[in-house]
């Protein structure tokens, strides 16, 4: 499998990998495509498209955030994005992948084992339940999510996991003006504050993306997250 495209794009976002790490990306891709034949993991399956829209998109955060020696939650990870690419590229990170579908979690654990990744686990559960768990509540330096949900709902899923002084970073596309305006109340109620919105383009494309940085300023009320289903049906 030709690695030149991956190497070229990673160079542009200043991510430097060893041969072993490149091989891990190839193996991850092969496992993803094979499993995708029997369960719906991704609509993007062509090698170069996966490189650009999954691998490089996941790793673009490195340009704007120091990804070293942190405990990271990836909420709504799905097929493992951005958590597994981040783990391959930055092995010092301790990562917990969280997804509500057990079949996806089983796949993620197969990938973790096959790639011999350490300090990474995949857990099955709803965000609202995990956010109330003693083991995970306010215990992460960083929570990331590429999940498709509005920022108010995503914040109620993610900010309960972030320790005071930590950060929730949402991977988002499109115009965020209205979504950010609606989200201000949620950020405040959840102990967070909008830090910045970092716009960027995927290398060699006109595909626009945003990172929304929400800093955890205060401990969270025990009222949040609300019971399962509420954050999605009735955003703060």
SSE topology sketch:
Elements: H1 4-12, H2 19-36, H3 47-59, E1 71-75, H4 83-89, E2 94-99, H5 102-114, E3 120-124, H6 127-130, E4 140-145, H7 151-158, E5 162-172, H8 177-189, E6 192-201, E7 208-216, H9 230-233
Parallel strand pairs: 1-2, 1-4, 2-3, 4-5
Antiparallel strand pairs: 5-7, 6-7
CATH superfamily assignment? Vaccinia Virus protein VP39
Number of helices: 9
**Outline type:** globular
Separation, N- and C-terminal Cα atoms = 47 Å
**Major sheet: arrangement of strands:** 3-2-1-4-5-7-6
Total discrete domains: 1
Q: What is the C-alpha radius of gyration, as a whole number of Å?
A: 17 Å
The CATH topology comes to Rossmann fold
Q: Average the pLDDT over all residues and give the rounded result.
A: 96
Family: Belongs to the methyltransferase superfamily. RNA methyltransferase RsmG family.
Binding site for S-adenosyl-L-methionine: 76, 81, 127-128, 146
Main location: cytoplasm
Organism: [Clostridium] polysaccharolyticum
Descriptive report:
Belongs to the methyltransferase superfamily. RNA methyltransferase RsmG family. Specifically methylates the N7 position of a guanine in 16S rRNA. It comes from [Clostridium] polysaccharolyticum. With 236 residues, the chain is of the alpha/beta class. It contains nine helices and seven strands, in the order αααβαβαβαβαβαββα. A seven-stranded mixed beta sheet has the order 3-2-1-4-5-7-6, with helices on both faces. α1 packs parallel to α3 (47-59) and α3 (47-59) crosses α4. The longest helix has 18 residues, at 19-36. The termini are far apart. The mean pLDDT is 96.
């Amino acid at each position: 499998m030709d690695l030149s495209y991956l190497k070229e794009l990673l160079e542009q976002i200043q991510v430097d990998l060893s041969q072993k790490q490149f091989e891990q990306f190839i193996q991850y891709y092969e496992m993803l495509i094979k499993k995708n034949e029997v369960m719906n993991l991704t609509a993007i399956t062509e090698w170069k498209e996966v490189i650009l829209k999954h691998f490089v998109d996941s790793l673009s955060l490195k340009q704007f955030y120091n990804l070293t020696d942190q405990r990271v939650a990836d909420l709504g990870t799905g097929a493992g994005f951005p958590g597994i690419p981040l783990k391959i590229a930055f092995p010092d990170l301790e990562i917990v992948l969280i997804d509500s579908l057990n079949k996806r979690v089983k796949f993620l654990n197969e990938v973790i084992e096959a790639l011999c990744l350490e300090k990474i686990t995949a857990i099955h559960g709803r965000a609202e339940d995990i956010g109330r768990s003693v083991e995970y509540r306010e215990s992460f330096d960083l929570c990331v999510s590429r999940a498709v949900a509005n920022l108010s709902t995503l914040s109620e899923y993610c900010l309960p996991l972030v320790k005071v002084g930590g950060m929730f970073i949402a991977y988002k596309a499109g115009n965020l003006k209205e979504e950010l305006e609606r989200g201000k109340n949620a950020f405040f109620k959840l102990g967070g504050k909008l830090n910045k919105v970092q716009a960027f383009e995927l290398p060699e494309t006109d595909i626009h993306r945003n990172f929304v940085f929400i800093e955890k300023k205060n401990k969270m009320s025990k009222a949040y997250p609300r019971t399962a289903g509420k954050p999605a049906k009735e955003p703060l």
